[in-house]
Amino acid sequence: QPSGPTSGTARSASLFERAQAVTPGGVNSPVRAFNAVGGTPRFIRSARGAWLTDVDGNEYVDLICSWGPMLLGHGHPEVQAAVAAAVARGTSYGTPTEPEVELAEEIVARTPVDRVRFVSSGTEATMSAIRLARGFTGRDVVLKFAGCYHGHVDSLLASAGSGLATFAVPGTPGVPESSTALTLVLPYNDRAAVEKAFAEHGERIACLITEAAPGNMGVVPPEPGFNAFLAETCARHGALFISDEVMTGFRAGRLGQWGLDGAREGWRPDLMTFGKVMGGGFPAAAFGGRADVMSRLAPEGPVYQAGTLSGNPIATTAGLTTLRLATDEVYAHIDAAGETIKAAAAAALSEAGVPHVVQSTGTMFSVFFTDPADGPVRDFADASRTDSIAFAAFFHAMLDRRVYLPPSAYEAWFLSSAHDDRAVQTVLDALPEAAEAAARA
Ligand code: PMP
């Protein structure tokens, strides 16, 4: 059983040095590096339930959960068994298979989409959904919100231009201006900005894409009725409403964020994107939606989209098994563990005098190191007020006490059904001293 401070990081440090020689930044996805918090990322050797074990033998409570997918924790025996059986039958055929039909049926049953197409990453899902929306509408402009991340799609790696409802500038070198010139970036939760964009460009707008509830600037819940307003506004202007549930899907609740608003309010997105949980820890993602829109996809329709490993039998088996095991009890457990951790984090930070704001949507939550006097975090400008120095100190103090948080102040803290009392207690025990460290930073 883990106890006391960690036993050094020599092997992680040495692997990180080797990694940096052969891979930019030593990582295959930027936020895994500790650029935002400083220090050496831990190289994980194995994981079980709620726990990660690094190459030096340190154990950590995992609050990353692979950035969302591991809803049932690591190495769930039924998922492992289903994957092992699938591997024994071969790993990829490049032909249709039964598990992909079953997974598609499961997603269609649990979400408002009529049909889905599988891809291998959330990025591919949003990229393809946008192509389909443009192909379906014959229009070219895309609306997105600042602070919403939809993967590294060229046209979506855009920052806001100089004013509201002006076209965007590339958010990274390597994306030509022509790729973002058709993207409008608006402040989240801002109805007036959406109205203005449609008033000025309505006839050119193919789609509006939004995170169903943003989780990539920390958790910023849509204000009541905001998603319904977006769906209604898009419909009024003949644009498609794309709800990106790559992060929230099958995680914010059993029916994702849509279960928290659309299902109750009686509306549905035209297109949705999914990833993470639906792949059960394997590369699988999907986009889906209205039957008439989806039928425009090749080979039924003219909009081209494809993938060698799309619907891979191992990934779809892992996803299907995960979704079938993701019962109401799983979400209730994650919710309860989250409530306990949220309350303890707020208490510890208050006790230490560290300004903070805790926000959630369904079972997803995050802790902002912002001043509550400034109000809730409603958009990217609010989230940007985060005290990243305080967060870095907090992060490292938690890590030293065996809690591996996402190494960024702008992330949800992910839990799983495997986060039992021992794992939660480890987090609770670490919080007071981590809050003190944040106060000193
Ligand atoms: N959309 C959302 C809402 C996401 O959170 C992410 C990834 N964090 C993506 C899209 C991109 O998914 P992927 O990393 O699988 O390309």
From TrEMBL:
Regions annotated as coiled coil: none
Stored InterPro entries: 4pyrrol_synth_GluAld_NH2Trfase, Aminotrans_3, Aminotrans_3_PPA_site, PyrdxlP-dep_Trfase, PyrdxlP-dep_Trfase_major, PyrdxlP-dep_Trfase_small
Its EC number(s): 5.4.3.8
Residues modified to N6-(pyridoxal phosphate)lysine: K276
Keyword terms of this UniProt record: Cytoplasm, Isomerase, Porphyrin biosynthesis, Pyridoxal phosphate
Subcellular location: Cytoplasm
Keyword Lipoprotein: no
Enzyme class: isomerase
PROSITE patterns registered for this protein in UniProt: AA_TRANSFER_CLASS_3
Transmembrane segments: none
Subunit structure and binding partners: Homodimer.
Protein name: Glutamate-1-semialdehyde 2,1-aminomutase
Organism of origin: Nocardioides koreensis
Protein's gene: hemL
